[in-house]
């Protein structure tokens, strides 16, 4: 990671590209209760070095968190509703005895356990990104909870959970950027049936099941026109940075927002950023360009054009609402809906680059 970061510094890309490495929950000795969670002592030296690197480079702790596995391995201690983000009855409430925080989902508890483990090594202000989470839709006779119904329930409830822009109980102001595992089934993967049954799509591209990415669209919905615009109330300094990047390195055509041109008025950062962001997105989305810009951008199906200023829209095949994930995003990226929070995670990588 150090070598990668040095190369990025040499290329002056270190402020936009962040280096990290995903960790599973296995590196945490005991996740429950979250308040007493710590890293496995045998990993302390390695984890300490990783955390030091992440803090020094303003990067992210990347967490692979699977409530499915935690539930299965709990031997009935936790109810399945807890793992599926479903309401718990009064007698099944999960409360941390030390902090008295109420945990409405195992997902939140796992993220909080990781934050507390990081703090136990005297690190703070390292945001967590959940790089893998999901639920298998099929399993063998000894995997009764790996069902399509549970997979649909988990992923749809996950989307609703991370769309509300809040973090876990101990970090309520830190929204949880999350990647759903996974896009396609891995039909050649060894092990039990569930290991080959995490995909939203089959290997031939057909739907296994549908999930909703919000009221506007879903993985299997009707196509719609989508625009990338600046988020109302976004920080003006970040908006200016976003315009500079989009119109410069991002290669957006920003001539229309110059003085005397049709999209110059209203002469506001909000308006100019919206035009620049959208032009960049429409040009670059087919090759991986997305809509986030350090948390200042959002997707909408409402046409932002005016009589004098026309925005270029896009038609999304299959109704897949374009995810806002790989850039440019920042360590404190925030969003008011699913558009910047849930991304279908397609590849498991050891060293991951986040365009910041």
From TrEMBL:
Organism of origin: Anisodus tanguticus
Record-linked InterPro entries: GH (IPR017853), Glyco_hydro_17 (IPR000490), Glyco_hydro_17_plant (IPR044965), X8 (IPR012946)
Domain spans labelled X8: 226-311
Pfam family, one: X8
Coarse class of the protein's main subcellular location: membrane
Family, as annotated: Belongs to the glycosyl hydrolase 17 family.
PANTHER family: GLUCAN ENDO-1,3-BETA-GLUCOSIDASE BG1-RELATED-RELATED
MF-aspect GO terms: hydrolase activity, hydrolyzing O-glycosyl compounds
Compartments it resides in: Cell membrane
Membrane protein topology class: Lipid-anchor; GPI-anchor
ATP-binding keyword on record: no
The keyword Amino-acid biosynthesis belongs to this UniProt entry's keyword annotation: no
Designated name of the protein: X8 domain-containing protein
Keywords: Cell membrane, Disulfide bond, Glycoprotein, Glycosidase, GPI-anchor, Hydrolase, Lipoprotein, Membrane, Signal
UniProt superkingdom: Eukaryota
Gene Ontology CC terms, in alphabetical order: plasma membrane; plasmodesma; side of membrane
GO biological process, one term: carbohydrate metabolic process
């Amino acid at each position: 990671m150090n070598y990668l970061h040095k190369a990025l510094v040499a290329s002056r890309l270190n402020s936009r590209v962040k280096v990290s490495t995903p960790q599973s929950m296995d590196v945490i000795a005991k996740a429950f209760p979250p308040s007493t969670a710590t890293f496995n002592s045998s990993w302390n030296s390695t984890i300490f070095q990783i955390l030091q690197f992440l803090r020094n480079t303003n990067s992210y702790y990347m967490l692979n968190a699977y409530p499915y596995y935690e539930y299965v391995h709990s031997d009935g201690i936790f109810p399945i509703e807890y793992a599926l983000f479903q309401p718990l009855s009064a007698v099944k409430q999960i409360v941390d005895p030390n902090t008295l925080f109420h945990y409405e989902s195992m997902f939140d508890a796992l993220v909080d356990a990781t934050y507390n483990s990081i703090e136990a090594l005297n690190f703070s202000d390292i945001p967590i990104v959940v790089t893998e989470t999901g639920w298998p839709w099929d399993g063998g006779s000894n995997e009764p909870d790996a069902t399509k119904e549970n997979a649909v329930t988990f992923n749809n409830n996950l989307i609703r959970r991370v769309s509300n822009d809040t973090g876990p109980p101990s970090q309520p102001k830190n929204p949880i950027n999350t990647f759903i595992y996974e896009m396609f089934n891995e039909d050649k993967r060894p092990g039990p049936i569930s290991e080959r049954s995490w995909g939203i799509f089959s290997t031939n591209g057909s739907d296994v099941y549908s999930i909703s990415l919000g009221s506007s669209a879903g993985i299997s919905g009707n196509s719609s026109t989508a625009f990338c615009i600046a988020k109302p109330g976004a920080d003006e300094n970040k908006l200016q940075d976003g315009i500079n990047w989009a119109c410069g390195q991002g290669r957006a055509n920003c001539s229309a927002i110059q003085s005397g041109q049709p999209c110059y008025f209203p002469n506001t950062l909000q308006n100019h950023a919206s035009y620049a962001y959208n032009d960049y997105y429409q040009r670059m989305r087919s090759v991986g360009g997305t809509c986030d810009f350090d948390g200042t951008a959002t997707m909408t199906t409402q046409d932002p054009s005016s009589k004098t200023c026309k925005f270029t829209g896009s038609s999304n095949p299959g109704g897949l609402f374009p995810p806002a994930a790989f850039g440019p995003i920042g360590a404190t990226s925030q969003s008011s809906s699913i558009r910047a929070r849930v991304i279908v995670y397609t590849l498991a990588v050891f060293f991951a680059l986040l365009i910041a």
